[in-house]
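Worked problem 6 (solution included).
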Amino acid sequence: PPGRGRDGRPTLGVRVPDWPAPMAAMSRLPRPLVASSANPSGALPPARPEDVAPSIIAACHLLLDGGPAGGLASTVVDLSDYQAGRWAVLREGAVSHACVATALADAQGG
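Solution. The predicted structure is:
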């Protein structure tokens, strides 16, 4: 069973990057990669490796430099009560709330 996250909830975040370098690296792995974001919760996402917080660097075994990052931050969706028909966008980013709603409605068959 999952442990408790930093917010105290027993949930797990899954990220699917829209970035060629990490996607290429992960496609070669035999199982999913467990990794932290490159920024502490609530902090701005770094655009370059030298912008990554020192506390994150100190805990890293690997920092993948795929070139300058751009665009919006990740959208974070809470699906922990999805079976009961409840979900929430915790942070709207590159994928809009409307797009998430449409995708979830489509997944439910309409």
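Discussion: DSSP finds three helices and two strands in the chain.
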